[in-house]
Amino acid sequence: MSASGGTKAIVAALGANLAIAAAKFVAFAFSGSSSMLAEGVHSIADSGNQGLLLLGGKKAKREATPQHPFGYGRERYIYGFLVSIVLFTIGGVFALYEGYEKIKHPHDLENWYWPVGVLVFAIVAEGFSFRTAIKESNEIRGQLTWSQFVRRAKAPELPVVLLEDFGALVGLVLALGGVGLSLLTGNGVWDGIGTVCIGALLVLIALVLAAETKSLLLGEAADADQVAKIREALVDGETVTGVIHMRTLHLGPEELLVAAKIAVQHDDTAAEVARAIDEAEARVRAAVPIARVIYLEPDILRTAAA
Length: 306
Prior knowledge:
Blueprint: H1 7-31, H2 34-59, H3 75-104, H4 113-141, H5 146-152, H6 157-185, H7 189-218, H8 224-234, E1 240-252, E2 255-264, H9 270-287, E3 291-300
Parallel strand pairs: 2-3
Antiparallel strand pairs: 1-2
Helix pairs in contact: 1-2, 1-4, 1-6, 2-3, 2-6, 2-7, 3-7, 4-6, 6-7, 8-9
């Protein structure tokens, strides 16, 4: 699966969230709705998320140095982890606190048409952003289900934006429900309940993203189909007769390290083995272009050891 960063989806989400955040804070100022305040903080957090993802993508492009010989590809994982832990959690905890305070000290909404109008506008804008993220993801998702795509994607940007936009849309519906019930019943507690639901949703999304980006930071192997292609490409049936063992590791979303011990004939010369290794590396890079760093160790295959 391609490791596209989905920059178009990130920029679309950033633009939508900045416009929505401004509208929500205006609605809060005129209505006093805690759902609007929580949703405004949510949109600010989401905007910060997209900024971090863009920054991580830029930093990951730096050239390798003697101190970091494998480059900076994992910068994208680090910033994805920061998004999940810091910004989502801050937004979620703030919403939970604000909702608790509103339930404890409810008050009637003022100028109800402000939050309702802003929520309708926000749903349309978030829907556009979500549609862009889905379109970008479908180009690389293949036959995977959405849950499989989020779990297996090596680039953190698209799963983050997808879950952000999905959470934002659900949160907007919850906020609209809280405001609507407060207006229908005349009881401001419903606005606080809607805010608590928004906070719980944000914390849940933060936990899901934290688990996925943690796995990427620890280091994940190539996908099963990529491993199969690499094994097939290594063997030429002449000098390289088999793969004794192999390890793969993502140095970044678009950088793969391959280390393998390959079986060669016992009577091959050093020159023949060296040529076979060079040719095997070329075949692997042709089969799996993201295999940037390849280390091959020749050995004589012994049946008992194998």
